[in-house]
Specification:
Chains A, B, C, D: It comes from Kribbella rubisoli. Four copies of one chain form a homotetramer. In chain A, helix 4 links the parallel strand 4 and strand 5. The longest helix of chain A is centred in the middle third of the chain and has 20 residues. Chain A is 39% helix and 24% strand. The mean pLDDT of chain A is 97. Chain A is built from eleven helices and 15 strands.
Chain lengths: 335, 335, 335, 335
């Protein structure tokens, strides 16, 4: 069985990480091509990892030498590039967001559905994190009864000053949206985003932290704190409350020290540290599934649904009121 | 300096505990009288603890032999008994609720204010728990910056089947109301109580768990889960999120075991186990303050404000919508 | 029932704490007299706590106004003061050490035995710490099977430079000696004290940390690290390993913070913080037992046995070899 | 760059795991051949993983199609197979033990040294565990000052009844030997193995648990509990005590639950669960280093030194006394 030949579109931080990952840590795959608007960046990486540099991402996608694509380009070019993947029948692991809005995401879903074959997997990597996976397994086992509530926390040490209130919903809360949909196995039907008096350590007008309430079709609820200027470190925590117990992940791990008057440990600096293993597993399993002609993770629909929830979330952020999530009828779209 | 002579009105579980506490663990106090509608119960306790049994609680309150009163009678007789304490100038530690509704609680506040001397302390014992006290101190120190959010969890193993949805607000959530007001040093101005699909391990029609959002005058917010049929044990957890860090109390404590395939420890069975030390400290400090002619803990106003928030909470529980808390003007009432 | 009238001999840090404790936190007891070679210190405390100051400790012990004595004087005067307590039939809570050596301690044991009544309780306060007590209860329940091993750690932030290697055994390790004897319910028959290359943060010639192995009559063993210049804070940890599981106490407690890049909590500064509750319980239970004419804690024999183990430990410290503990025949001494 | 062609000798549990690992999780390597005395077992695995089955392990080692070898055969054939690897210049990842005794292990070291090239890496996988690696990095950083002591615990849920006292030293404690040598960067010069009264849940005559003391050339010490019939689960814990603090790894991780009256989490069932990630990293890094013509982990000398310490440990186990470790002069052997 020969190796899957992978091309990476967009080699900024995430794309370069993925390219390295394919080369250094993934069985059964080979990096053959990279593409990036920043030619020097692409060339440097291509030289280091022994991959061809292709100027035009659409050419990379179309190339006969490329079996499958990792899309780590900016979100606003995803739609075009995903359509190209679908046209050429190329399996693609697409970093979130699927596209820039729910309407175009739905078009992607529909176009893929017409092909009659799932080619698109969305990069919600948390589903591959061993802790999240173990929690999902525990909840699905029914050992704790039905799951009633989630309490989620998503904190970044800090973000660039260009990171505005809307991005907190679109780029950070979106992960919590996927986690809630996935853990409950149900769609979010309503979202409320509220904001307390913001931290003073942020530019004027940025609403940080935010507190969201998700209401799901199955009657469950999730509350979510997103706080992207927490100062301390990166923290993603999730507590599921079920009828006969609760389960929590994301508590401190690693070396436990007693030093400087304190007991405890270090917070991870950022998501790349916290979720490195999740990314490794995601890419390995995506490669394995691709070889089998399948996907093994969040689908285009999941990307679309997350986008629709975030759009409603943005409306709620500005109104302070609950907003219904309008989702296409899944059974019709995928029927 | 002779001992403070304490009378206890109502010697059910809490009152009997307090009577024992005065006798067995409290310096500078002596139990002199107990009163309870259940004469046999009062007599048993009085015999065991060497205290006089008084049939009429108002007679106990009025008695020259009693310097101060602990009120652990049912809430619906509090108003009358508190008025008696005020009339006779007797300091009183009153178990929550202060009275049955905000209107009568306000009358108590006003009556005490006219006396020109604080005689009433309300039994929100959590303020005396060493963990809560340490958290309060940490937050007030400013070390973590301004406090922005609280995430609170209040869980009971189970409650009697007579415990209905409204009691979850009145009897359980009320503690969270006091904690939020106290930690933030600010009034709650709006409350939203929402309920997911209830646990199946509860009688039909009981809305358990409940998820509340408190909005405070200072712009802060608190979300609170109250789940009184959690099955596992008693758990009270509080996380404060501030500008430069967070602080959590109520995580597992005690003996850490590795046994039966698990690492961890035992959940406390109920609030009497979890807050035993808090009660001990509360009563000792109340005795000490009473001797000095002061109170040293939550005031009648705190009892009134908690009642007002819970009334709004009940309205929200039935409507599902945010409800403004209507509070008398403190500066006028106590001005 | 009138209060137990307590006199405190020696009002340095521990004695003053105990005097305060009797006055401020203990039911059923009254502080009537204090004595200290430092007259000003005694007078200051006596004035503050409204107790008579007696110059001669033996006069305090003999006084008709004193029902029971707390001995917090230096160890080298304990023998004489304990004999006085025995002579006058005064119950006494004696801070460790019982006396300065095993031989004199045995004399105390024998003298008390002749009286036919236990008057002496030794101040090994750890037995009253709620965590230790819960561990003892768990081990005695048999739930984990027979206990095989203890792993103990005793660390101080730092000690005065006058604290020499021998004092690490006598004053610090002695607590571990009592803990091992108590938890196993068996005598220590052999002790080995070994020392690695010492920390550089200590005066030349001081052997710190030390590593001891206790072997017990019932076949169990305990290893103990004592490190009195740990720099970080005060830490006392104990892990019991039994046939079907292990139990650990002394892990971090209190407020859990995420701040400054770290998750965790603060180490207690010293033993007075860590064991404050243990001391409170010890004194309350000693008062209660004294009123009943009993002791309720470690006996003179326990003080003697600890002294004998420490003497062997000192011999092992200098030789590096296992040393047998020579203990009088308990059944003969107390027969 | 073409893939490294790997042959696996011995496809019992560990060897089969490694073969799977090469195929499913390792970049830059290909499984080409397997060998096992149990032909059916080898054939099954070879068919499943698409690898050639070779009856004679020495033929596999000699084969031109094999670039590098993973040795997971029983220890008693290691010497012969390692010599074959050296003869044919084949890099080899050899599961512990290197050989069955220190003398033959030293011969392996000497033979490799004559080649002038390191071909042998020993499978002490803990060095690749992220927690151990982080601890090593912390200790080497000097942040906590010099490391003085290790407290190690190694527990298995249970072992087959054929697992005798000597195997506890050879097969379990040997990992602690490597950990101590590696973390301190110093040789163990003396070992004492002591045993308390054994657990009753083990066959007569088996000395379990065992308590060892390692003394190192640099003046440090390590105490080690090995308990292979702990009943609860697999637990490997390591606490390093340094001049300015301590660091611990191996505390509970994973999903934190509150259920069944308890808070906590599950113990891993066995070492394959606990150290899966360590094995993955070990094999990937071994492959990467092999391609570069290097080793990247414990060397033949480390295997030899561990064997020599265990031999002394066995002597101490039977005598109960400290035994000096006799090690060849490293500078002469490798000079």
């Amino acid at each position: 069985m020969s190796d899957l030949r992978v091309g990476v579109v967009g080699v900024g931080v995430m794309g370069a990480d993925h390219a390295e990952r394919v080369v250094r840590k993934t069985a059964g795959a080979r990096l053959v091509a990279v593409s990036d608007p920043d030619w020097a960046r692409a060339e440097g990486l291509g030289a280091r990892l022994d991959a061809r540099v292709v100027a035009d991402p659409l050419e990379l996608i179309a190339s006969n030498e490329v079996d499958a694509v990792i899309l780590a380009s900016p979100g606003f070019v995803h739609a075009e590039q995903l359509f190209a993947c679908l046209e050429h029948g190329k399996p693609v692991l697409c970093e979130k967001p699927l596209t820039m809005d729910a309407a175009s995401a739905l078009q992607v879903v529909e176009r893929e559905h017409k092909l009659g074959r799932q080619l698109i997997q969305v990069g919600f990597m948390r589903r591959f994190d061993p802790e999240y996976a173990a929690m999902k397994q525990l909840l699905d086992s029914g050992e704790l009864g039905r799951t009633l509530l989630l309490h989620n926390v998503h904190r970044n040490k800090s973000v660039p000053t260009t990171f505005r209130s809307e991005m907190i919903v679109r780029d950070s809360m979106v992960h919590e949206v996927d986690v809630a949909r996935w853990l409950f196995g149900s769609e979010i039907t309503r979202i409320t985003v509220r904001t307390p008096q913001p931290t003073s350590l942020v530019a004027d007008g940025v609403l940080d932290p935010q507190l969201a309430l998700f209401e799901l079709a199955n009657g469950a609820m999730a509350d979510v704190e997103v706080f992207v200027n927490f100062q301390v470190g990166y923290e993603v925590r999730c507590e599921a409350v079920a009828e006969r117990g609760s389960a929590t992940i994301g508590l401190g791990a690693g070396v436990f020290t007693r030093a400087g008057g304190q007991w405890g440990g270090a917070m991870p600096a950022d998501f790349r540290v916290r979720f490195e293993q999740a990314y490794d597993i995601e890419v390995q399993r995506w490669v394995d599934a691709t070889v089998r002609g399948e996907i093994d993770g969040p689908s285009a629909w999941d990307g679309y649904a997350a986008a629709a929830v975030c759009e409603a979330g943005l409306e709620s952020l500005s109104s302070g009121r609950p907003v219904e999530v309008t989702l296409a009828d899944r059974s019709k779209v995928l029927g």
